Amino acid sequence: MQLSSLQTRLGKLLKQSASAHVYRKEVIELLRSVLSFDAACCTSVDPLTLLSTGAMTEEGLESIHARLLQFEFGNEDINDYNRLAASPHPIASLVLATEGKPEKSQRYLEVLEPGGFSDELRAALICDSACWGYLTLFRSTSHEPFTGDELAIVAALSPVIAHGLRSFTLTLPAASEAAGSSDEPGIIILSEDAKLVSWNHPAEGWLSLLREWENITEDYLPRPLLAISAKVGSGNEGNGKSARVTIRVPDGTYLTIRGSRLTDAKGGYGAAIVVEPAKPADMLPLLSKAYGLSPRESDIAELVFRGASTKEIADTLFISAYTVQDHLKSIFLKTNVHSRRELIWQLFTRFAAE
Protein backbone atom coordinates (compact mmCIF):
# COMPACT_ATOMS: atom_id res chain seq x y z
CA MET A 1 0.00 0.00 0.00
CA GLN A 2 1.30 3.46 -0.94
CA LEU A 3 2.31 5.75 1.94
CA SER A 4 0.13 8.53 0.55
CA SER A 5 -2.87 6.19 0.71
CA LEU A 6 -2.08 5.32 4.35
CA GLN A 7 -1.77 9.01 5.23
CA THR A 8 -5.14 9.67 3.60
CA ARG A 9 -6.71 6.82 5.58
CA LEU A 10 -5.27 8.25 8.80
CA GLY A 11 -6.91 11.58 7.95
CA LYS A 12 -10.24 9.83 7.48
CA LEU A 13 -9.82 8.05 10.82
CA LEU A 14 -9.47 11.41 12.53
CA LYS A 15 -12.79 12.60 11.11
CA GLN A 16 -14.56 9.33 11.94
CA SER A 17 -13.24 8.80 15.49
CA ALA A 18 -15.50 9.99 18.30
CA SER A 19 -12.67 10.27 20.84
CA ALA A 20 -8.92 10.14 21.22
CA HIS A 21 -9.20 6.61 22.60
CA VAL A 22 -11.10 5.40 19.53
CA TYR A 23 -8.59 7.17 17.29
CA ARG A 24 -5.61 5.52 19.02
CA LYS A 25 -7.27 2.11 18.69
CA GLU A 26 -8.01 2.61 15.00
CA VAL A 27 -4.46 3.83 14.35
CA ILE A 28 -3.08 0.58 15.75
CA GLU A 29 -5.44 -1.46 13.57
CA LEU A 30 -4.43 0.49 10.47
CA LEU A 31 -0.74 -0.02 11.23
CA ARG A 32 -1.37 -3.73 11.67
CA SER A 33 -2.61 -3.89 8.07
CA VAL A 34 0.86 -2.91 6.80
CA LEU A 35 3.20 -3.97 9.61
CA SER A 36 3.54 -7.17 11.58
CA PHE A 37 3.63 -6.83 15.37
CA ASP A 38 2.36 -8.80 18.32
CA ALA A 39 1.29 -6.00 20.67
CA ALA A 40 1.06 -2.23 20.61
CA CYS A 41 0.51 0.81 22.77
CA CYS A 42 -0.48 4.26 21.48
CA THR A 43 -0.23 6.98 24.11
CA SER A 44 -1.27 10.63 24.10
CA VAL A 45 1.02 12.91 26.10
CA ASP A 46 1.04 16.44 27.46
CA PRO A 47 3.59 18.15 25.16
CA LEU A 48 4.85 20.28 28.05
CA THR A 49 5.60 17.48 30.52
CA LEU A 50 5.64 14.42 28.20
CA LEU A 51 3.47 12.58 30.73
CA SER A 52 0.67 10.31 29.55
CA THR A 53 -2.81 11.78 29.16
CA GLY A 54 -4.32 8.46 28.07
CA ALA A 55 -3.34 5.30 26.23
CA MET A 56 -4.64 2.44 24.15
CA THR A 57 -2.76 -0.60 25.44
CA GLU A 58 -3.45 -3.98 23.88
CA GLU A 59 -3.98 -7.15 25.87
CA GLY A 60 -0.71 -8.75 26.87
CA LEU A 61 0.91 -5.45 27.80
CA GLU A 62 -1.04 -4.53 30.93
CA SER A 63 1.11 -6.85 33.04
CA ILE A 64 4.31 -5.00 32.03
CA HIS A 65 2.95 -1.47 31.50
CA ALA A 66 3.74 -0.20 35.00
CA ARG A 67 7.26 -1.63 34.83
CA LEU A 68 7.87 0.06 31.49
CA LEU A 69 6.84 3.38 33.03
CA GLN A 70 9.18 2.83 35.97
CA PHE A 71 12.04 2.28 33.54
CA GLU A 72 11.07 5.38 31.60
CA PHE A 73 11.49 7.63 34.63
CA GLY A 74 13.71 5.66 36.97
CA ASN A 75 16.40 4.24 34.72
CA GLU A 76 18.36 5.67 31.81
CA ASP A 77 18.08 3.20 28.99
CA ILE A 78 18.26 2.85 25.22
CA ASN A 79 15.56 4.68 23.21
CA ASP A 80 13.93 6.38 26.21
CA TYR A 81 11.10 8.60 25.07
CA ASN A 82 12.41 11.87 26.52
CA ARG A 83 15.46 11.62 24.28
CA LEU A 84 13.50 10.41 21.26
CA ALA A 85 11.13 13.37 21.59
CA ALA A 86 14.11 15.75 21.41
CA SER A 87 15.89 13.88 18.64
CA PRO A 88 15.83 14.81 14.93
CA HIS A 89 15.16 11.09 14.35
CA PRO A 90 12.37 10.25 16.83
CA ILE A 91 11.81 6.66 15.64
CA ALA A 92 14.03 3.74 16.70
CA SER A 93 13.97 0.02 17.34
CA LEU A 94 15.80 -1.72 20.14
CA VAL A 95 17.56 -4.31 17.99
CA LEU A 96 18.80 -1.78 15.43
CA ALA A 97 19.85 0.71 18.13
CA THR A 98 21.93 -1.97 19.87
CA GLU A 99 23.31 -3.42 16.63
CA GLY A 100 21.61 -6.72 17.22
CA LYS A 101 22.36 -6.93 20.94
CA PRO A 102 19.16 -5.96 22.78
CA GLU A 103 20.59 -7.40 25.98
CA LYS A 104 22.50 -4.11 26.28
CA SER A 105 19.15 -2.70 27.45
CA GLN A 106 18.18 -3.27 31.06
CA ARG A 107 14.55 -2.75 30.03
CA TYR A 108 14.92 -5.67 27.63
CA LEU A 109 16.49 -7.94 30.25
CA GLU A 110 14.05 -7.16 33.05
CA VAL A 111 10.77 -6.46 31.25
CA LEU A 112 10.65 -7.25 27.53
CA GLU A 113 12.41 -10.61 27.35
CA PRO A 114 10.57 -12.03 30.39
CA GLY A 115 7.35 -10.80 28.77
CA GLY A 116 8.11 -12.78 25.60
CA PHE A 117 9.19 -9.86 23.40
CA SER A 118 12.40 -9.76 21.34
CA ASP A 119 12.16 -6.28 19.80
CA GLU A 120 10.45 -2.96 20.41
CA LEU A 121 9.84 -0.12 17.96
CA ARG A 122 9.36 3.31 19.52
CA ALA A 123 8.16 6.51 17.84
CA ALA A 124 7.76 9.92 19.47
CA LEU A 125 4.83 11.48 17.62
CA ILE A 126 5.90 15.01 16.67
CA CYS A 127 3.80 17.75 15.06
CA ASP A 128 5.04 21.34 14.70
CA SER A 129 8.05 20.66 16.95
CA ALA A 130 5.89 19.40 19.83
CA CYS A 131 5.47 15.80 20.99
CA TRP A 132 1.81 14.74 21.25
CA GLY A 133 2.19 11.03 21.83
CA TYR A 134 4.19 7.83 21.80
CA LEU A 135 3.74 4.75 19.64
CA THR A 136 5.28 1.48 20.81
CA LEU A 137 5.14 -1.73 18.77
CA PHE A 138 6.36 -5.08 20.08
CA ARG A 139 7.51 -8.26 18.38
CA SER A 140 7.65 -11.61 20.11
CA THR A 141 10.57 -14.00 20.10
CA SER A 142 8.93 -15.98 17.28
CA HIS A 143 9.31 -13.10 14.79
CA GLU A 144 12.20 -11.32 13.11
CA PRO A 145 13.23 -7.86 14.43
CA PHE A 146 11.92 -4.65 12.89
CA THR A 147 13.75 -3.54 9.75
CA GLY A 148 14.94 -0.14 8.61
CA ASP A 149 12.25 -0.10 5.92
CA GLU A 150 9.57 -0.69 8.54
CA LEU A 151 10.94 2.15 10.65
CA ALA A 152 10.73 4.37 7.56
CA ILE A 153 7.02 3.56 7.17
CA VAL A 154 6.34 4.54 10.78
CA ALA A 155 8.46 7.69 10.36
CA ALA A 156 6.33 8.77 7.39
CA LEU A 157 3.06 8.18 9.24
CA SER A 158 4.05 9.55 12.65
CA PRO A 159 3.48 13.28 11.91
CA VAL A 160 -0.03 12.49 10.65
CA ILE A 161 -0.81 10.48 13.80
CA ALA A 162 0.63 13.31 15.94
CA HIS A 163 -1.60 15.83 14.16
CA GLY A 164 -4.59 13.64 14.98
CA LEU A 165 -3.71 13.41 18.66
CA ARG A 166 -3.19 17.17 18.80
CA SER A 167 -6.58 17.78 17.19
CA PHE A 168 -8.40 16.08 20.07
CA THR A 169 -6.93 18.68 22.41
CA LEU A 170 -9.10 21.30 20.70
CA THR A 171 -12.23 19.31 19.85
CA LEU A 172 -15.40 19.99 21.79
CA PRO A 173 -18.12 17.34 22.27
CA ALA A 174 -21.71 17.71 21.20
CA ALA A 175 -23.85 19.46 23.79
CA SER A 176 -25.62 16.17 24.59
CA GLU A 177 -22.28 14.55 25.51
CA ALA A 178 -21.30 17.00 28.24
CA ALA A 179 -21.06 15.15 31.52
CA GLY A 180 -21.00 18.00 34.02
CA SER A 181 -18.14 16.66 36.14
CA SER A 182 -17.66 17.71 39.74
CA ASP A 183 -15.73 20.88 40.50
CA GLU A 184 -14.43 19.37 43.73
CA PRO A 185 -10.81 18.18 43.74
CA GLY A 186 -10.27 14.46 43.97
CA ILE A 187 -7.52 13.39 46.37
CA ILE A 188 -5.88 10.00 45.81
CA ILE A 189 -3.13 8.26 47.77
CA LEU A 190 -1.07 5.60 45.97
CA SER A 191 1.37 3.09 47.41
CA GLU A 192 4.97 2.64 46.29
CA ASP A 193 3.84 0.06 43.72
CA ALA A 194 1.09 2.37 42.38
CA LYS A 195 -1.83 0.71 44.16
CA LEU A 196 -4.80 2.68 45.45
CA VAL A 197 -4.54 3.22 49.20
CA SER A 198 -7.23 5.82 49.93
CA TRP A 199 -9.26 8.50 48.21
CA ASN A 200 -12.02 11.01 48.87
CA HIS A 201 -15.52 10.95 47.39
CA PRO A 202 -14.88 13.30 44.40
CA ALA A 203 -11.92 11.11 43.42
CA GLU A 204 -14.33 8.23 42.78
CA GLY A 205 -16.02 10.29 40.06
CA TRP A 206 -12.75 11.37 38.47
CA LEU A 207 -11.37 7.81 38.50
CA SER A 208 -14.57 6.53 36.90
CA LEU A 209 -14.39 9.21 34.20
CA LEU A 210 -10.74 8.50 33.41
CA ARG A 211 -11.29 4.75 33.29
CA GLU A 212 -14.31 5.16 31.03
CA TRP A 213 -12.26 7.37 28.73
CA GLU A 214 -9.50 4.77 28.44
CA ASN A 215 -11.96 1.85 28.35
CA ILE A 216 -10.29 0.07 31.27
CA THR A 217 -11.81 -1.70 34.27
CA GLU A 218 -11.46 -0.95 37.98
CA ASP A 219 -8.58 -3.43 38.07
CA TYR A 220 -6.33 -0.89 36.36
CA LEU A 221 -5.16 2.60 37.27
CA PRO A 222 -5.66 5.29 34.59
CA ARG A 223 -2.44 5.93 32.63
CA PRO A 224 -1.99 9.56 33.72
CA LEU A 225 -1.96 8.45 37.35
CA LEU A 226 0.43 5.60 36.58
CA ALA A 227 2.78 7.98 34.78
CA ILE A 228 2.72 10.54 37.59
CA SER A 229 3.30 7.83 40.19
CA ALA A 230 6.32 6.55 38.24
CA LYS A 231 7.64 10.09 37.79
CA VAL A 232 7.48 11.14 41.44
CA GLY A 233 8.69 7.74 42.61
CA SER A 234 11.78 7.85 40.41
CA GLY A 235 15.14 8.09 42.11
CA ASN A 236 16.65 10.02 39.19
CA GLU A 237 17.93 13.46 40.00
CA GLY A 238 16.26 16.07 37.89
CA ASN A 239 12.92 14.25 37.76
CA GLY A 240 11.95 15.93 41.01
CA LYS A 241 9.38 14.83 43.56
CA SER A 242 6.34 16.36 41.89
CA ALA A 243 4.68 16.10 38.49
CA ARG A 244 1.72 17.59 36.64
CA VAL A 245 -0.26 16.86 33.51
CA THR A 246 -3.19 18.70 31.89
CA ILE A 247 -5.62 16.67 29.82
CA ARG A 248 -8.92 17.08 28.02
CA VAL A 249 -11.50 14.41 28.74
CA PRO A 250 -14.40 13.47 26.44
CA ASP A 251 -16.99 15.63 28.23
CA GLY A 252 -14.98 18.69 27.12
CA THR A 253 -13.50 19.39 30.54
CA TYR A 254 -9.81 20.08 30.97
CA LEU A 255 -8.32 18.45 34.04
CA THR A 256 -5.09 19.10 35.85
CA ILE A 257 -3.60 16.12 37.65
CA ARG A 258 -0.81 16.88 40.12
CA GLY A 259 1.26 14.43 42.06
CA SER A 260 3.76 14.73 44.91
CA ARG A 261 6.00 12.13 46.46
CA LEU A 262 5.13 10.97 49.97
CA THR A 263 7.66 9.45 52.38
CA ASP A 264 6.77 7.43 55.45
CA ALA A 265 8.63 6.97 58.73
CA LYS A 266 10.19 3.71 57.52
CA GLY A 267 11.69 5.23 54.39
CA GLY A 268 9.03 3.92 52.03
CA TYR A 269 7.24 6.21 49.64
CA GLY A 270 4.00 6.69 47.79
CA ALA A 271 2.24 9.45 45.92
CA ALA A 272 -0.46 12.00 46.73
CA ILE A 273 -2.42 12.92 43.61
CA VAL A 274 -4.97 15.69 43.14
CA VAL A 275 -7.39 15.70 40.18
CA GLU A 276 -9.37 18.87 39.53
CA PRO A 277 -10.74 21.06 36.72
CA ALA A 278 -7.89 22.95 35.08
CA LYS A 279 -7.48 26.65 35.67
CA PRO A 280 -6.78 29.00 32.74
CA ALA A 281 -3.12 29.20 33.78
CA ASP A 282 -2.91 25.41 33.42
CA MET A 283 -4.77 25.33 30.10
CA LEU A 284 -2.99 28.15 28.28
CA PRO A 285 0.41 26.45 27.75
CA LEU A 286 -1.28 23.32 26.36
CA LEU A 287 -3.70 25.23 24.13
CA SER A 288 -0.87 27.47 22.92
CA LYS A 289 1.02 24.36 21.82
CA ALA A 290 -2.08 22.96 20.15
CA TYR A 291 -2.62 26.17 18.18
CA GLY A 292 1.07 26.50 17.37
CA LEU A 293 1.57 29.82 19.18
CA SER A 294 5.13 30.98 19.70
CA PRO A 295 6.36 31.64 23.27
CA ARG A 296 5.92 35.39 22.75
CA GLU A 297 2.42 34.91 21.34
CA SER A 298 1.55 32.74 24.32
CA ASP A 299 2.72 35.52 26.68
CA ILE A 300 0.53 38.03 24.86
CA ALA A 301 -2.49 35.70 24.89
CA GLU A 302 -2.14 35.32 28.66
CA LEU A 303 -2.02 39.11 29.12
CA VAL A 304 -5.09 39.50 26.88
CA PHE A 305 -6.94 37.05 29.12
CA ARG A 306 -5.97 39.17 32.13
CA GLY A 307 -7.53 42.19 30.45
CA ALA A 308 -4.33 44.07 29.62
CA SER A 309 -4.50 46.82 26.99
CA THR A 310 -2.12 47.01 24.05
CA LYS A 311 -0.04 49.64 25.89
CA GLU A 312 0.04 47.54 29.08
CA ILE A 313 1.15 44.48 27.09
CA ALA A 314 3.86 46.51 25.37
CA ASP A 315 5.12 47.93 28.68
CA THR A 316 5.08 44.52 30.38
CA LEU A 317 7.00 42.77 27.59
CA PHE A 318 9.25 45.75 26.71
CA ILE A 319 8.13 45.83 23.08
CA SER A 320 6.37 48.44 20.99
CA ALA A 321 2.61 48.69 20.59
CA TYR A 322 3.09 48.02 16.86
CA THR A 323 4.86 44.76 17.66
CA VAL A 324 2.00 43.78 19.99
CA GLN A 325 -0.49 44.39 17.18
CA ASP A 326 1.60 42.28 14.78
CA HIS A 327 1.65 39.43 17.27
CA LEU A 328 -2.10 39.74 17.83
CA LYS A 329 -2.72 39.47 14.08
CA SER A 330 -0.69 36.26 14.02
CA ILE A 331 -2.53 34.89 17.09
CA PHE A 332 -5.92 35.71 15.55
CA LEU A 333 -4.91 33.95 12.32
CA LYS A 334 -3.73 30.79 14.11
CA THR A 335 -6.80 30.56 16.34
CA ASN A 336 -9.26 31.62 13.61
CA VAL A 337 -10.71 34.58 15.52
CA HIS A 338 -11.05 38.30 14.79
CA SER A 339 -11.06 40.00 18.18
CA ARG A 340 -9.75 39.76 21.72
CA ARG A 341 -13.17 38.74 23.00
CA GLU A 342 -13.31 35.88 20.51
CA LEU A 343 -9.76 34.90 21.48
CA ILE A 344 -10.70 34.60 25.16
CA TRP A 345 -13.68 32.46 24.22
CA GLN A 346 -11.60 30.31 21.87
CA LEU A 347 -8.84 29.66 24.41
CA PHE A 348 -10.77 29.46 27.66
CA THR A 349 -14.51 30.05 27.89
CA ARG A 350 -15.61 27.33 25.49
CA PHE A 351 -13.59 24.75 27.42
CA ALA A 352 -14.89 25.73 30.85
CA ALA A 353 -16.96 23.18 32.73
CA GLU A 354 -20.63 24.11 32.95
Structure commentary:
GO terms for molecular function: DNA binding. Residues 286-351 form the HTH luxR-type domain. With 354 residues, the protein is an alpha+beta fold. The chain folds into 3 domains: 3-170, GAF domain (Beta-Lactamase); 177-280, Beta-Lactamase; 293-351, Winged helix-like DNA-binding domain superfamily/Winged helix DNA-binding domain (Arc Repressor Mutant, subunit A), CATH 1.10.10.10. 45% of the residues lie in helices and 21% in strands. The protein is built from 14 helices and 10 strands. It has a 5-stranded antiparallel sheet. A 5-stranded antiparallel sheet has the order 7-6-10-9-8, with helices on both faces. A hairpin with a 5-residue loop joins strand 6 (186-190) and strand 7. Helix 1 runs parallel beside helix 7, helix 3 packs parallel to helix 9 and helix 10 (280-291) crosses helix 11 (295-305). It starts with a helix and ends in a 7-residue tail after the last helix. Mean pLDDT is 88; it is low at 173-180.
Summarize the model shown.
The protein is 45% helix and 21% strand. With 354 residues, it is an alpha+beta fold. The protein folds into three domains: 3-170, GAF domain (Beta-Lactamase); 177-280, PAS domain (Beta-Lactamase, 2-Layer Sandwich), CATH 3.30.450.20; 293-351, Winged helix-like DNA-binding domain superfamily/Winged helix DNA-binding domain (Arc Repressor Mutant, subunit A).
Number of helices: 14
Radius of gyration computed on alpha carbons: 21 Å
Total beta strand runs? 10
CATH fold category name of the largest domain: Beta-Lactamase
Task: Give the helix level as a range of percent.
Answer: 40-55%
**Quaternary form:** single chain
* SSE string, helices as H and strands as E: HHEEHHEHHEEHEEHHEEEHHHHH
Structural class: alpha+beta
Shape: globular
CATH superfamily of the largest domain: GAF domain
The CATH architecture name of the largest domain reads 2-Layer Sandwich
Q: What about the largest sheet?
A: 5 strands, antiparallel
Q: Largest beta sheet: what is the strand line-up?
A: 2-1-5-4-3
- C-alpha termini separation: 46 Å
Q: Kindly state the mean pLDDT as a whole number? A: 88
CATH first level of the largest domain: which class? Alpha Beta
How many domains make up the coordinates? 3
Keywords: DNA-binding, Transcription, Transcription regulation
Protein name: HTH luxR-type domain-containing protein
GO molecular function: DNA binding
InterPro entries: Sig_transdc_resp-reg_C-effctor, Tscrpt_reg_LuxR_C, WH-like_DNA-bd_sf
